[in-house]
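FORM 7B: Structural annotation worksheet

SECTION A. Query
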Amino acid sequence: MESSRPGLPSWLPADPGPLGLAGFAMTTFVLSMFNADLVNKAGEPVVLGLALAYGGIAQLLAGMWEFRTGNTFGAVAFSSFGAFWISYWLLVTFGVDAIPEANLGAAVGLYLWAWAIFTTYMFIASLRTTGAVALVFFLLAITFILLGAGNSGDHTNVIKWGGYVGLATAAAAWYASFAAVINSTFGRIVAPVFPLGRGTSDRTTPPNY
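SECTION B. Predicted structure
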């Protein structure tokens, strides 16, 4: 059977990257709307279903499938951020009430700063993928830094800015997902992703995401 992805051999399965990016984008978008204070905070629990099912489980599955394609970067990124959203669901559902209110900001801030560190070194690695993916990780690193600083210091305005940058991150991730899907289905480059070049150890050609 001929591969549906231009330039990739027929033995490779469908690209799981667009699924992982879409799950990440939608969950980040909805949460960022609340962080930016653009919708009423009372509706924030709506994020939890997305965090568990789409941002979490679907993205984790995408990461597992990336291992099969040999794409180390995609496998680590999607598996990790799938686990991030599952951990977010667990934290909000079971963990927050167990943390004393006086320590909650510092605890959540620590959690977010740790993800900022991971995202920053993944951004460096993304510089060998595509411009679309690198932009996602650049914006995401800024988002985590702002949210980490905002929660650690109880700075509401900093958290809002983290929400705004999170919305930009979601838009960038949606574009990267859209580009991969439409380029695959049309069989040609319709939406450019701006390849930055990468080694040959992961895939025979740069991935479409």
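SECTION C. Observations
The CA atoms of residues 32 and 38 lie 9 Å apart. The radius of gyration is 17 Å.

SECTION D. Sign-off
Analyst initials: ____
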